[in-house]
Amino acid sequence: MRGNALWVLAHPDQSSLSSHLRNVGIAALREKGWRVVESDLYRMRWDPLLVTDDGSADVRAEQRKLADADLVILQFPLWWYGVPAILKGWFDRVFESGFAYDVPDPETGRFLKYGRGGLIGKRALVVVTAGDRHASLGPRGISGHIDDVLWPILHGTLWYTGMQPLRPHLITEADDVDQQTVGSVERSLIDRLDHVAEEEPISYLPMEDEFYDHSIRLHDHISPGVEGNAAHQHCAV
C-alpha cells in the first residue's frame, strides 16, 4: 500500500523537535512513494472555534484532504494529558456530522460508528512528544499507559469515525533530545513509517450486537475479568 497521506501538525514552534520530525517523516514517506499533503495548524493560523452551520472554505479544504487520504498522521506535543487546543478545534470543526460521524447505514438507517464511520478504512498514526520519562507513560507509570492517555483520540475520535488507529508513536524526554541523540529519534520514526502500511491496527471491538448489549455495554461473556479500556479489544476476548 502506497497512497495518499495527510500529515497534521499541531506545534507552535517551527524550530521544535516536533517540526523537525514532521519534515523527516514527510521526506521518508515520499521516498517510499507516498503522496503527502500537510496541515500545519499553527502556520495556517487555524481557527479552532466551532460555530453553528460551519460551511467555511477552510473546513471544506481539510475535509477534502481527509477524504483523499489513505493514511493520516496526527502529530502533537502532549499538553496536560491531551492535545493542544488548536488540534481539538480541528477535530471539532472538520470531523462534523454527516462527514465523519452520523453517517447512516444505507441498509438499516442506523448511524455508523466505532469502526464503521464516515472515515472507514483510513489508517491513522498518532506521533506524540512528551517531556515525561518513558516508564511514566507505561503500564505502571504514574501518568498512565499512553494508550489509555490517548483513549479519547484513539477510540473516541479515530475508531469512532471508522479509522484504523495504530499504536501511538511516542517520543519521551523530548526536551532532552539534542544533536547527539536526535539521530536515533529520527531513525525510530523512519523505521515506523517504513512499515506503516502493513502494521496491525489496534484491535478495538466494533459496536455490534455480538459484543455489546442495547445499553452499549459489553456482554458479560466478552472480555471476562477485564475492565476499563483494555476490555474493548479483541485480544481481551
UniProtKB/TrEMBL annotation:
Domain Flavodoxin-like fold, chain residue ranges per copy: 4-179
InterPro entries, sorted: Flavodoxin_fold, Flavoprotein-like_sf, NAD(P)H_dehydrogenase_qn
Family matches, as Pfam families: Flavodoxin_2
One of the record's GO molecular function terms: NAD(P)H dehydrogenase (quinone) activity
GO cellular component, one term: cytosol
Keyword Oxidoreductase: yes
Keywords of the record: Oxidoreductase
Domain of life: Bacteria
Family: Belongs to the NAD(P)H dehydrogenase (quinone) family.
Protein name, as recorded: Putative oxidoreductase
